[in-house]
Write a structure and sequence with these properties.
- There is one protein chain.
- By secondary structure, the chain is mainly β.
- It has one domain: Porin.
- It is 15% helix and 46% strand.
- It has eight helices and 19 strands.
- The chain has a 19-stranded antiparallel β-sheet that branches.
């Protein structure tokens, strides 16, 4: 059943009493956050404000530091060390549970149920949801995986109360990676490459258009674009130990030289995911028989001049319990801080089953206009070789 507010908006538009809005008009919020560029939605990264570069082992390594593919500070084995199937993630804000449910069931932007949830923006909500599948395997230091990731969100239009900004993006494709480690396990280098297809539907639409199935389908079709690109991420990691204190230095370049996404349509311009140069350092004092404390300081997006300096700094802290390091620990507590605010999270591993969750802030403001949202994420993963 349509909401009365949507019917009233439709009436205003059809009688000419509301301002007009062209289909596909530029969005007034920024859907391409750094976190959403990752091929997987990681609760560990979110809980530590993405300050993960020196300790990014496990599934996160392929994006956050390929040098750690296959693990760090551990003995390599001759068989599979990871075989995650499934690796499932769901993320959203407080208004997005219903939207995430529809996306998880395979419905797309043109479906009535999905659009109904996005339309709740007009009633004061701001739904955002992301669903991600990331099955993958690691043999020694070789990574092979596949990502299927879909995200949808909406926001009020800045200048027109009878219109919404709508963004949907899905991406899929294979990812491979490899790393090399020195004999002493103190120096690592790694590289990962993906071949991704992205489908994007972005634009500002009158409520009347969104409220009618035929008009909505036609409008979304007009602005939908298909892109293909091959992101390359590379990193180095140096581990050191001084008077019993373990530490690491990491340098990562994500989207090396900028990842170019070409459209299947000749009249649609290409775009780039910008290069992200990140430098980070960590210390990992032992907690005795209990585990480790990873404390990370990080500076990201050093090659971008369009981002304010304060937005580039991140701090992350992780308390792990058990005799394994990082993502392999039995349980962990995490907290992080960046300019957008405080994040936190936790994880638990029970045999082959792993559960991670986090709460984190995201800035969806355009340019240097800050609009902060609080979002949550849950990872559920089964490592069949544990």
């Amino acid at each position: 059943m349509r909401l009365i507010t949507f019917q009233a908006a439709s009436l205003l538009l059809t009688t000419g009493l509301a301002p007009s809005l062209g289909l596909g008009q530029t969005l007034t919020f920024d859907p391409r956050s750094q976190f959403d560029r990752a091929p997987l939605a990681s609760a560990r990264a979110a809980g530590m404000a993405e300050a993960l570069t020196p300790v990014a082992d496990g599934p996160d390594a392929v994006y956050y530091n390929p040098a750690a593919i296959g693990g760090i500070r551990q003995k390599e084995e001759g068989t599979l060390s990871d075989f995650y199937f499934p690796y499932f993630s769901i993320a959203g804000d407080s208004h997005a549970l219903a939207l995430a449910k529809e996306l998880r069931s395979g419905k797309n932007l043109e479906d009535d149920a999905v659009t109904t949830e996005l339309l709740r923006t007009h009633s004061g909500a701001n739904p955002y949801a992301r669903v991600s599948l990331f099955p993958h395997a690691v043999y020694r230091r070789m990574f092979v995986g596949y990502t299927y990731d879909v995200r949808a969100s909406s926001a009020p239009h800045a200048d027109d109360a009878t219109a919404l900004d709508v963004d949907e993006r899905s991406q899929r494709g294979p990812i491979i990676g490899y790393s090399l480690a020195s004999d002493r396990k103190d120096l690592y280098w790694g590289l990962s490459i993906g071949y991704l297809e992205r489908s994007e539907t972005q634009g500002s639409f009158p409520l009347a258009t969104l409220n009618q199935a035929d008009d909505r389908k036609r409008a979304f079709h007009e602005v939908n674009r298909i892109y293909k690109g091959s992101p390359i991420h590379t990193g180095v990691l140096w581990n050191f130990q001084q008077q019993g204190l373990r530490g690491s230095l990491g340098v990562v370049v994500r989207n090396l030289t900028g990842t170019r996404y070409d459209s299947s349509s000749t009249d649609t311009p290409t775009y780039k995911d910008p290069e992200d140069l990140t430098i980070a350092a960590s210390i990992s004092p032992s907690l005795g028989r209990w585990g480790y404390w990873n404390l990370v300081g990080q500076v990201s997006e050093l090659t971008r001049n369009d981002i304010e300096t304060k937005e580039k700094f991140r701090l992350g802290s992780e308390w792990t319990f058990g005799d394994a390091f990082g993502s392999k620990s039995t349980c962990a507590l995490r907290v992080g801080y960046r300019y957008a605010g405080l994040s936190w999270g936790a994880s638990l591993r029970l045999g082959i089953l792993g559960l991670n969750l986090a709460s984190y802030p995201e800035d969806v403001g355009l340019g240097n206009t800050h609009v902060i949202e609080r979002r949550s994420i849950v990872n559920l993963a089964i490592n069949l070789v544990d």
